[in-house]
Amino acid sequence: MKDHYPTRKTNKSKFLERIEPVIYNNETQKDSTLEFYEKYGFIHIEGFFDKDSTSKMLDLSEHIFNNPNAFYTNNEPSSNKVRSVLNIHETGIFSTIHKHPELINLVNKILGEYVYIHQSRINYKAGLGTNGWSWHSDFETWHSQDGMPQMRCLTAMIPLVKNTAANGALMVIPESHKLFWSSSKGENITAESEFSDQKVGVPDSDAIIEFFNNTNEPIKTLTANPGDLILFDCNTIHVSNPNLTPNKRTNLFFVFNHIDNRLVDPFSSNKPRPEEMGARKNIKILLNTKPLTI
Ligand SMILES: O=C(O)CCC(=O)C(=O)O
User: Does the CB atom of residue 170 touch ligand 1 within 6 A?
Assistant: First the structure.
């Protein structure tokens, strides 16, 4: 398959224009929410999930944090604290939540029918001493390491506690999803070390300046309440600071990919990352036809 976004191949980084649209569904009547998403690469919808479901999601996340052994986990780089737990979308209430008809409907309006879960995770940022994330585009990793061909994928992030500037709310560069930053080759890396502290594929300062020159908007700090929904395009450049408070910042992530964009062989690595980081076998198409009660 042709590599439209070569990255981590040479000693030079460069910018490439995005080829694909942001909204794939031609039938979508673009309301202001979708227009915003298309232009800026993210949307924040307040109060998407009700209080009861949100508190059940938080309870389950706490349970998993305290009993992580049954799950694929990733720890903080400098301690043995759990940083992320992956592949959680078929556990307890998460199995209903990721199929929430209104969520699937919204995702379908953006990516078109039919989508599946590429990756799911809880990021805990467990309080003082926990790392943040450097500026990056998820697509750059998913393309090079997992073999995701195109930008037809998005992340649904559900904050389960209040996200503030102090506990490391996600920050995005508006309009950055329209440019692809092709990274220079990096050192030998492991999937695990990169997951806990990404070093390769991280835009340098000049690249970040270019992303800012490309928009008139300031950084958007996505402070949010439990049960809100934040959707962001797979190529939107984002970052988050360490958690400076003593309490966990627990966020849930479901990554939806279009079925026509299934993973192929990685574009810049010999071996795919584990199934929990990028689904190849465990693929179930998500339909929004059955009303579900949550
Ligand atoms: O949890 C966060 O604050 C950021 C997560 C992130 O950037 C990522 O997992 O790619």
Answer: yes
Specify the pLDDT at position 178.
97
What is the reported pTM? 0.95
- C-alpha to C-alpha distances, 241 to 137, 154, 169, 244, nearest whole angstrom: 16, 21, 7, 8
Strands in 171-172's sheet, in edge-to-edge order, are 133-136, 238-240, 171-172, 220-221
Ligand 1 center to residue 122 CA distance, Å?
A: 10
Does 145 sit in the ligand 1 pocket, CB within 6 Å?
no
DSSP state, residue 81: S
pLDDT of residue 292: 41
* pLDDT for position 196: 78
Distance, first Cα to last Cα, the chain: 41
- Taking alpha carbons only, the member of 201, 188, 43 closest to residue 136 is 201
Q: Which residues of the chain carry a pLDDT beneath 50?
A: 291-294
CA–centroid distance, residue 282 to ligand 1 (Å)? 23
The pLDDT of residue 28 is 65
Atom nearest to 138 CA in ligand 1: 10
